[in-house]
Amino acid sequence: MLKKLTFILPILVSSCSQYAEYTPSGDTLKDAITGTPYSAKIYIFGGRVIKPSFSMRLFPENTGLSLKPCDPLSVAQNNCILVEGIPKKPGSVTIKISGGLYGSMIVSSAGFHKEYTMNVISP
């Protein structure tokens, strides 16, 4: 009986934990080219993002790129972020997203933080 419990208990506990997964995976987005329109999407999986706790930032701010929800009218609007614009100058750009995920009857809410970098290159 003890062997069965030691095998089943970790599975039950791990299935009740919530964490965010991201697409694209990794820490980089595709390169952008100055003066050329750029568009990329970041998806957050693992639960619906809690709107009041959600934050998305772009550093430096004067790059010509912007961040916004993919579908502003969707209930899960913050689960997809659109990076778009026309980059003005070459360099490295950092995108930071953070917030919380709603819980359920089985799992509690959880926080997340993700950082992406991308390069803006000259043509």
Please describe what this structure looks like.
Strands 1-3-6-5 form a four-stranded antiparallel sheet, with no helix packed on it. A four-stranded mixed sheet has the order 2-8-7-4, with no helix packed on it. The chain has one helix at residues 2-15, and strands at 21-23, 32-33, 38-45, 55-59, 65-69, 80-85, 91-101, 110-121. The chain is mainly β and 123 residues long. 11% of the residues lie in helices and 42% in strands. The mean pLDDT is 84. It starts with a helix and ends with a strand. The protein is elongated, with a radius of gyration of 18 Å. It has one domain (19-121): Sandwich (Immunoglobulin-like), CATH 2.60.40.10. Strand 7 (91-101) and strand 8 (110-121) form a beta hairpin.
